[in-house]
Each structure stands twice: as structure tokens, then as C-alpha cells.
Amino acid sequence: MKDLQALSRRLKSDPLTPESTNVRLYRAVSWLICASEQSKHPDLVFVSHWIAFNALYAADADSVTPTAERERFRIFIRKLVSHDEHNRIYSILWEKFSGPLRVLIDNKYLFKNFWDHQRGLSSGWEPAFQRANEAAMHHLNDRRVAEFLEIVLDRLYILRNQLIHGGSTFRSSVNRESVKTGNRVLELLVPAFVDIMMKNPGEDWGAIHFPVVK
Question: Please, are residues 146 and 5 in contact by the beta-carbon 8 Å criterion?
Fold first, then answer.
């Protein structure tokens, strides 16, 4: 908590980072602090972590479709990985969470096509699920960090939708492990993302669509 608060104060007055990037990072850290204050409520921790992540790549919420938002964070992820000189993201995904993430990826309830099938929007989901899981493991074994991280975040995006859009009961027993794993991963990944962005102020992280109006 103290480290996050110190980082928040630093961001507020950092002259080396463009204002738009500073605002992104300051907002993200504020939600990381919020997440750290919600330890008794894992669902709220996850939502706060996701808002922190969203703040880092945020686009105009009134004009971005779910498909476009996913594409935006894929582009963002590739930028992050390209600047990750010390392979911190890979270390988090492989050394700390490869086991739990395999379980997360193998959870059909976090696979978009499964729900499309339940709604009658597709004729089947199992073959696509199997292909996606195999691709994830190939990406992990081949150290294709961006591609593997995209799949992880795709699954967590479904969990995010379940919570944000009222598709899950508060403290529901059916998704406890997914929420727990998601929180463990995001509480390490998002601060790493913030650090990478701070160390690359020259990168174009995009314009913020809800700037501070003075």
C-alpha cells in the first residue's frame, strides 16, 4: 500500500512523462490502491484490478465495441511486451502462475464461444476450445509472451463481464477459484505494466478520451 501511495504521488508531479500518460498511470494506481483496500471482498478486488488495467489503455467508452476493446488491449499488450527488457511479464506468467493459469484456460465457463453456443449464436464450441487451449500451451512453451497473455486476458475478460454486467452472484461459490487466480495474476501484472510504461515515456500510449478538464 505504501509503495503504491508513493508511486501515486510521484506520478502526480513527474515532469518526464507526458501528461496523458501520467493521467493514465495515476488513475491506474488509484484503482490498485482501491484493490488493496478490498481484501475481504475478492469480487471487488478483481473489479478494481480490471479498472486499473483498463485505465492504462482506456478508449472512449461510448464508441468502442467489445470486439474493438479487445483489439485495443491486444495492441497495448504487444507494446508492453516489446518494452519488457527484463522479461518480467514472462516471469509472472511462467515462474509464478503457469499451473493456475493452465487451470484457468481450461475453464470452459471463461470461453466466449461456450456462451455463444448457450445463446444459440454458434453450433458448437468444443473444437474451438480445444484449439485455443493447445495454442495457449504452445505460446507458453515457446515463450510467445504477447500471444499467451492475450489468451489469459481474453479468459479474464469473460470473468470481468460476468461480474460487471451482473452475470455473477456476489461471493458466488461457482467462480471462487477463477476470481482468486485472476486477482493473484492481476495484482502482479498491472503494477508491472505501470512500471514498463513509466520507463518508456517516449512511447505513444494513445490519447485519453476522458482528460482532466480544468
Answer: no
> What pLDDT sits at residue 205?
87
Question: Can you give the pLDDT at residue 17?
Answer: 75
Residue 124 backbone class (left: φ over 0; alpha: ψ -120 to 50; beta: rest): beta
Spatial distance between the Cα atoms of 214 and 206, rounded to a whole number of angstroms: 20
Please check whether residue 209 is in contact with residue 59, taking contact to mean a CB–CB distance below 8 angstroms.
yes
Phi, psi for 13 (deg, rounded to 5): -130, 20
- The residue assigned the cell 489468451 is 151
Are residues 156 and 97 in contact, defined by beta-carbon separation less than 8 angstroms? no
Q: State pLDDT tens for residues 181-196.
A: 999 999 999 999 999 9
The full DSSP string for 114-155 is: HHHHHTTS-S--HHHHHHHHHHHHHHHHTT-HHHHHHHHHHH
Domain boundaries, the chain: 2-198
pTM above 0.85?
Answer: yes
Give the residue from 60, 30, 28, 82 showing the smallest Cα distance to 204: 82
